Amino acid sequence: MMRSLSLAALLALGTAATAFAETPRKGGTFNFTAPYGSAFSTLDIHSSPNIQEHFVTYAIHRSLYSWDSYNNKPVPELAESVDISDDRSVYTFHLKKNAVFHNGKPLTVDDVIFTYKRLADAKNALPGASYINIIKGVDAFGKGEATEIEGLKKIDDHTLEVTLNAAGNPGFNLMESTTSIYPSDYPLDQQAIKPVGLGAFQFKEHVPGSQVVVERFDNYYEEGKPYLDRVNIIVMPEGSARDVAFRNKEVDVSVLGPVQYQAYQQDPALKDHILEVAETFTRNVGFNQTAVPALADKRVRQAINYAINSDLIIERLVKGKAVRAVSWLPAGSPAFDDTAQPYAFDPEKAKALLKEAGFENGFEFEVTATPNESWGVPIIEAILPMLKQVGITVKPKPIESAALGSTVSAGDFQAYMWSNLTGPDPLTVLRCFWSQTAQSACNYTNFSNAEFDKLYEAARAEADEAKQMDLLKQANNLLQEEAPVWFFNYNKAVMAYQPWVHGLAPNATELALQDYDSIWIDDSAPASRK
């Protein structure tokens, strides 16, 4: 039902997969590259929708659930056991009694409630609000209509009863980094400067624009972990810089762009240490229908999808490191329609739709985009002549990677290009097109469609999983027809790793997000890492 590894990916796991058959070596330093920005925009993960900051989160913080990359499902992280009601609407969490924050405070139910109340408060406009909205009473609390969240009940210090708005699995939502549990006794303004969490590593230092350094937390609740002494999370957005650093053995892993992917596959010294997986991310251009009147017409948005030769761009620019997008949900989603087909490349149909919509003479708009080679300015430059052929003028508006999330969340764009998380839970993902979801949360295009709302709300209320998936499939197909975005591709993530690295996992939600506490390095590592 979820994403699965290709045979090549299973073979590519190589050394990483053998970690479980060997005795992990204790100690050492792991040099990790954070490739999605020129800086960390904040260390307060509650405030950031960007994957770049999540690399730090995976070391320092923990959420109520975590993602099991080998079984493709969320599992309880901070609870030693969970009781579930027969109708799957009430979950009782028995929190781990040995979980301790880096400031020495033991984890209690108060910390979970404190965190979720912060996220729910609409005045804070935090990205995690869209994930905890599954909990009963979050909306009322967020609007100031209640002083507590109705669905959160403290039984005792280590027992929390959570009532959902509808039956379902809260793990898909409550595993998100933006729902990381914060200590209730630590100043929130300090989380952006010196973050404190429950993770296997504690914050050491932040060199803005360069790196975040974390060190082993000896009181981590998983016995025997972490194996590493230190992790350097190094900012390195340029693919060429990562390539040089990796070949010089200065870094231990490197996310590969299209050009590097081809080169590494052909290099005998590198090809056996490549991990790849089909990720749950959709690359797209989102349209601001308010800022550009033409984009408010469905026919215009459809015309843009018909006018672009996506397959050619994937072949020439992305070097085959992607799968053509059909709609919003990726092909591996349980709510994906296997009979659906992507928009065909049909410039004449695009022209006809534009004429029908009253834009025969064309119009223009700008696309806010980062320098990212796979979903940034280079892609926008490639679609310029294609759209020009049907009368549409597009201008790229470059932006720093670290600023994209806040800019889009604020609605300060005519169109944007981004790579958005579209899994693993389709109910959570499609909430970003529900009209009740704020733009600051994830409804970036301010999409509002009564038919979609009806399907989505019916899916939320449906307890039967098969029927729920069918409703979500219909909703996803409707999104394809409404085209609130240009559907470009689903990412195929590829990461190279050094032969001394063990314990990497095939994380389909984002390959570069790794459980640092499971990683270890063997004796063949350079002296600088031991």
UniProtKB/TrEMBL annotation:
Domain Solute-binding protein family: 73-439
Record's keyword annotation contains Signal: yes
Gene3D superfamilies: Dipeptide-binding Protein, Domain 1 (3.90.76.10), Dipeptide-binding Protein, Domain 3 (3.10.105.10), Periplasmic binding protein-like II (3.40.190.10)
Cellular compartments per GO CC: ATP-binding cassette (ABC) transporter complex; outer membrane-bounded periplasmic space
Keyword annotations from UniProtKB, A to Z: Signal
Subcellular location: Periplasm
Transmembrane segments: none
Family: Belongs to the bacterial solute-binding protein 5 family.
Protein name: ABC transporter substrate-binding protein
